[in-house]
Each structure stands twice: as C-alpha cells, then as structure tokens.
Amino acid sequence: AAVVPVPYEEDEEDRRVCAGIPNYAAPGCLGGVICFVGKWNPARGDYDWTAARPLYVPRRVSTRGLMEPVIAELKDGTLLLEMRGSNAGLDPVKYPGRKWMSLSRDGGRTWTPVTDLRFDTGESFYAPSTLAKFIRSRKSGKLYWVGNICRGPAKGNLPRYPLYIAEVDEKIPALVKSSLTVIDDRGPGDTETVQFSNFSLLENRETLDLEIYLSRLGEKPDSPFSADCYK
C-alpha cells in the first residue's frame, strides 16, 4: 500500500468546516491510500501490477488525508489495512482523532469503506496522527497492534503517549480492550510533547520475544529532537 494524491472536490460541508485549514496535498487533491497487487510474469521477467481503487476520507474527517498505511493478514486470509489520519485544525471533540481501517477479502483488489478501528467492545478510542504497526507472534500465534492511544481527545499529532500493545480480535477485527498494555508513558520528568511514536518492532529469531527500539523524542527539554534510544 502507498500514499498517493487523489483527485477530490470539497463539498459544501468540507468548505465550511475546513475553511482556512491548509491542504497539504496537491491542488485539487487530498492524501489517499492505494493498494498495489503484483503478480510475477515469468515471460517478462518482471511483475504485472494492478491497483485497487483509492481509499480516502473527506477533509472534515482528516484534514491531512490518510497516511502511513500498514497491512496485516488475518488467519482467514482477510487483509486488515490501518492508516493514520489527522484532525489538525478541527475541534478535537467534534472531529475526534482516530486510527482508520479498511478490509479486503480478495487479496487487496477491493477494499471496504474506511471506518475507525475500535475495541472489541465496540467502543471508539482517541488517537493522535501517528504510525502504528502490526506483528504476529510465532510464539503465541496471536496478532498484535502497537501504537498510541490517548486518554482524551487528540489534537493533530499530539499527544503521542502512552504507547500501547494490544491483541487483535481477528474475527471482528478489533483491538481486544482487556489486553491493552502500556509499553511506555509520559513520566514526571518528561515534557508535554514527549513522543512514543518513533519505534521499530521485531521478533527475536532465537527467543521469539517481541522487541521494540524506541527513541523518546522530547524527553530532553533543551533538545526536543535529540533523544536516547531504548530497547
């Protein structure tokens, strides 16, 4: 999946709600996501590529479009696509920041309408505009989601804490609320803009433990873009 400019004409509600909010996409477009499917062509010695229809939401849902897509394959073969949006410039209560998702049951050729990723209880949750990741553990066989969930309404990119891990209920699909576990959170010595969103996620090949390497940007008040890396 990739982020691409999608031709888009604002409707009357978009123009009213998003008046004065910059559009970071190309003129007449907004940021969307397209899934490309490649099939090896032995005669050509190259891949033949097909593209699904682009996924996007109105600017009043995400003023910066959809970004940073990640895909997980569920046990039944369904593809779960998760995307970052942004409510930057909007009322964070009326237009809440969420994690956005879509499903494909035909290998990425077609996708369901974009909706918000939720808990298995059906509850929505607040989320900043940040990247999240999926990983399936060979030790447990379970699929996990790692990302930021806010305790209150998010404003654009912030706050980028806490960082959580949660099991994915693959039948719904949704995040299992009872499995939600804090990996790291803002401490008394951290700034309000400390970030737990710049991380790498992998499975140790020998122990099969999950490992995270995290840069706590903003942990040093006098140097906001300098941080130590933690494992």
Topology (elements, then pairings):
Elements: E1 2-7, H1 12-17, E2 29-34, E3 36-41, E4 46-51, E5 67-73, E6 79-84, E7 99-104, E8 115-116, E9 133-136, E10 143-148, E11 163-169, E12 174-175, E13 181-184, E14 198-203, E15 210-215, E16 229-230
Antiparallel strand pairs: 1-2, 3-4, 5-6, 6-7, 7-8, 9-10, 10-11, 11-12, 11-13, 14-15, 15-16
Question: How would you describe what is shown here?
Answer:
- It contains one helix and 16 strands.
- The protein is mainly β and 231 residues long.
- Strands 9, 10, 11, 12 and 13 form a five-stranded antiparallel sheet that branches.
- A hairpin with a 6-residue loop joins strand 14 (198-203) and strand 15 (210-215).
- The longest helix is centred in the first third of the chain and has 6 residues, at 12-17.
- The protein is globular and about 55 Å long.
- The mean pLDDT is 96.
Characterize this entry briefly.
By secondary structure, this protein is mainly beta. It contains one helix and 16 strands.
Overview features:
five-stranded antiparallel β-sheet, about 230 residues, 1 helix, mainly beta
* Largest pleated sheet: 5 strands, antiparallel
What structural class results from the helix and strand content?
Answer: mainly beta
Mean pLDDT: 96
The residue fraction in helices comes out at: under 10%
Report, as a whole number of angstroms, the end-to-end distance: 28 Å
3D shape: globular
Specify the number of helices: 1
Order of helices and strands: EHEEEEEEEEEEEEEEE
- Number of DSSP E strands: 16
Give the oligomeric state of the chains in this entry, treating copies of one chain as homo and distinct chains as hetero.
single chain
What is the percentage of strand-forming residues?
35-45%
Report the uncertain regions.
none
Rg over CA atoms, rounded to whole Å, is 19 Å
